[in-house]
Design a protein that fits this description.
- This protein is α+β, with helices and mostly antiparallel strands.
- The protein has one domain (11-146).
- The protein contains two helices and three strands.
- The chain has helices spanning 10-60, 76-81, and strands at residues 71-75, 107-112, 122-127.
- It has a three-stranded antiparallel beta sheet with strand order 1-2-3.
- The termini are far apart.
Length: 147
């Protein structure tokens, strides 16, 4: 009489469970990194939005364009108040917005670099401060016209 062997042994089941656990761990770590990258990309998009808002603000407010060799800082609060931007949602905290008040206020620093006066050349540096993210160009103190 032949013995009918059905099913898996305990060792085979443990091996499969271990392999599935390893795969789950790798997948979770990969998804975590994807989430962090997505938040950073969102933050970079918010910085670009602030620069675009500042450009639009200067087009409609040419008196704010700095003189040759000069500069000006435009606060996020001003851009929101004048309806060139909307409150920028914090990429890390749902329902929260990036800073617009006090010493942590977000702003765009505009520097005029032309020397001839014929073609105006402006450079833009954004300082956006959110809960966990802060632009690389943020200075330790606010520009004088924002204090």
């Amino acid at each position: 009489m032949k013995k009918n062997k059905k099913g898996f042994t305990l060792v085979e089941l443990l091996a499969v469970i271990t392999i599935l656990g390893i795969i789950a761990t790798i997948a979770t770590a990969s998804l975590s990194q994807t989430g962090k990258r997505a938040k950073m990309e969102t933050f970079r998009d918010l910085e670009k939005n602030m620069i675009t808002s500042a450009k639009n603000y200067l087009v409609e407010n040419p008196r704010m364009i700095p003189d040759q060799g000069g500069n000006v800082a435009i606060s996020l609060k001003t851009l929101i108040k004048e309806e060139y931007s909307y409150p920028l949602g914090d990429p890390d905290k749902s329902g929260s917005v990036c800073n617009t008040e006090g010493s942590n206020a977000s702003y765009v620093f505009v520097r005029r670099t032309d020397t001839t006066g014929v073609n105006i050349k402006l450079e833009y540096d954004v300082c956006l401060k959110c809960s966990k993210y802060s632009s690389e160009s943020c200075k330790s103190s606010l520009p004088a016209n924002l204090k």
